[in-house]
C-alpha cells in the first residue's frame, strides 16, 4: 500500500491538519496531527487512526502500523524538541 493513499484516507476521515506516513517494507509509521485528538485517551487516539484503515488492515494490504498522534499544540512542541522530519 502506498504511503500517500494512507495519508489521504486519514486526512479525509479525520480532518487532520498534518499526517506523515513512512514505510519500511510492510511496516508503516504514522504521525497524525489534529484537533480531533484533544481530550482523547491514547487508546481512543489509536482507535481513531485504525478505524478508517480497517478495510486495508483486514485485507492484508496494511500489515504492521505504529502510530504517534498529536494535537497541533503538542506537535509544535514535539517538532521543536524531538522530531526533525
Keywords:
3 helices, 3 strands, three-stranded mixed sheet, 85 residues
Describe this structure in words.
- This protein has 85 residues and is an alpha+beta fold.
- The protein has helices spanning 3-14, 42-59, 72-81, and strands at 18-24, 27-33, 64-70.
- It has a 3-stranded mixed beta sheet.
The whole-number mean of residue pLDDT values reads: 92
Radius of gyration: 12 Å
Structure class = alpha+beta
What's the helical proportion of residues?
Answer: 40-55%
Poorly predicted tracts of residues? none
- Number of E-type strands: 3
Beta percentage is: 15-25%
**What distance separates the N and C termini?**
21 Å
Give a quick account of the main beta sheet: strands, pairing sense, barrel closure.
Answer: 3 strands, mixed
Order of helices and strands: HEEHEH
Protein name: BolA family transcriptional regulator
Organism: Shewanella jiangmenensis
Family: Belongs to the BolA/IbaG family.
